[in-house]
Amino acid sequence: MKQTGKPLNIMEVCGTHTHAIAKSGLAQLLKDKVNFISGPGCPVCVSAQSDIDAMISLALKPDVITGTFGDMLRVPGTKISLQGAAAKGADIRIVYNPLDALALARANAGKKMIFLAVGFETTAPLIAACALEAARLKLKNFYIYCCLKTIPPALKIILDEKNDIDAFLLPGNVSVITGYKIFDFIARQYKKPAVVGGFNAAEIMKAVEILLNAQKPLVSSAYAWAGPRGNGAAQKIIASVFEPADGKWRGFGLIKKSALAFKKEFSRFDAAKAFDLKPAKEPHTKCRCALVLKGKIKPPQCPYFGRGCTPLKPLGPCMVSAEGACAACYNNAQR
After folding, report:
1. What are phi and psi of 151, to 5 degrees?
2. Strand 253-262 to strand 242-249: parallel, antiparallel, or no bridges (unpaired)?
3. Is 126 exposed, middle or buried (0-12, 13-18, 19+ CB in 10 A)?
4. What pLDDT digit, counting tens, does each position of 215-239 carry?
5. Which CA distances in Å does 119 have to 45, 95, 148, 169?
6. C-alpha span between 249 and 43 (Å, rounded)
7. 27: which DSSP letter?
8. What does the pLDDT average to over 137-151?
9. Do the beta carbons of residue 67 and residue 41 sit within 8 Å?
10. What is the pLDDT of residue 335?
C-alpha cells in the first residue's frame, strides 16, 4: 500500500496469529512499518457472557458430564467459571477432540453428555461429523451446546464502524475450510487489502510483505494450504448438519447470520433445546475484552490489565484463552 510515513495498521484476525506475533517479537521488529491490531479471532473470547453462564448452568445439572476444551475452564462467568462449577461437584472433562465426547457418551449411558462446541469454521466440520456419528449410533444421551460462529459477518461490523484499520491478515485455518474468496468483500466493498497468512513468523512476514506492497485493494493468500474455494468436502458436511443463524458475540452484540445452528433434523442434539434454556440478557462486566476484540484498544490500555486481571486471576476470556490477545500480551511482555 502507499506509505504515508506512518506504520500500516494491520488487523490480524486470528488469535493464533496474535500469539505468534507476540512470541516471535514481530510487533517490535516491524514497528516502523506495521502496527498490529488484534481482532475477533479467538472463539472462546467472542463467546457471549450469557453463553458462558449457560454452559456453567448446564454443567451443574444432575447426571450430566460436560466435555470442554481446556481453555474454557477458567473463563469467568457472571458468578463462577467452569472450574468453579467443577469445585462444586460438576463432572467436567477436558477433551482434545469432539470425538472424545462421543466416546464418553457411549461409555456413560446413564449420564447425559454435553459437549461445549466453541469455534469458527475450522472446528465446525468435526463437530458436524460428531452429530452425524451420534445420529448413526442413535445415541440418546449426547448433546452439543453450539457456540459456533463464522468470521466474515464480524469483520463487516468492524469495517462498518469508524476505525484506522488499513489492511487485514486473514486466518489461515478458517480459509483452508472456506477458501479466501469468502473475504472478497473486504477489497470489493471496503477497498482494503487482505491476505491469508500461515502461522509461523516467516509465513506471517510473507503475508505482511504483500500487504505493504499492495498497490490496490486485493484479497489473496500467502498460505499454501488456503486456496480460493476451500475444502468442498468440509463445507458439505457443515451444510448437512448446520444452517446460518443470528449469533451473540462478546463486544458485538447480536450479529445476523454469524452463527451456526442445528438443522431441524439434528435439533435433538441441541443442548439449549433439550434442557430448555431460556435466552438471557448480557450481564454487565467491567472487563474490557469487548473493546480489545473490536480493535478499539490494545490490552495494556485496559485499566485492569496486569493489575486486576492476570492469567491466574482473569476478569475476562482474552486473558485466559490460549488464543486471547491479553494473554499473548501479558505472557510475552510485548505491545
Report:
1. -70, -45
2. antiparallel
3. middle
4. 999 999 999 999 999 999 999 999 9
5. 10, 14, 5, 19
6. 10
7. H
8. 97
9. no
10. 42
Residue 209 pLDDT more than 70? yes
The rounded mean pLDDT for the chain is: 95
Q: Domain spans of the chain? A: 1-335
What pLDDT, on the 0 to 100 scale, is given for residue 60?
Answer: 98
Question: Helix-strand-coil percent breakdown of the chain, rounded to 5?
Answer: 40, 25, 35
pLDDT in tens, 245-264: 999 999 999 999 999 999 99
What is the grid cell recorded at 111? Answer: 449420564
Mean pLDDT (whole number) for 301-308: 94
What is the reported pLDDT for 334?
47
**pTM for this model (two decimals):** 0.94
Q: How far is CA 132 from CA 17, 96, 238, 241, in A?
A: 32, 19, 10, 8
Facing residues of 309 across strands? 305
Angle at 146 between CA 140 and CA 147, to 5 degrees: 165
Report d(CA 330, CA 335) in Å as an integer. Answer: 9
Neighbours of 22 (CB within 10 A): 24
- 229 burial via Cβ count (<10 Å: 0-12, 13-18, 19+): exposed
Mean pLDDT over 21-48 rounds to 96
Chain position carrying cell 468442498 = 232
Residue that is written with C-alpha cell 464480524 in the block: 154
- Superfamily grouping for domain 1-335: HypD, alpha/beta domain 2 (3.40.50.11740)
Phi, psi of 194 (to 5 degrees): -150, 135
Beta strands in the chain (DSSP E): 8-14, 34-41, 64-68, 91-94, 112-119, 142-148, 167-171, 194-197, 219-221, 242-249, 253-262
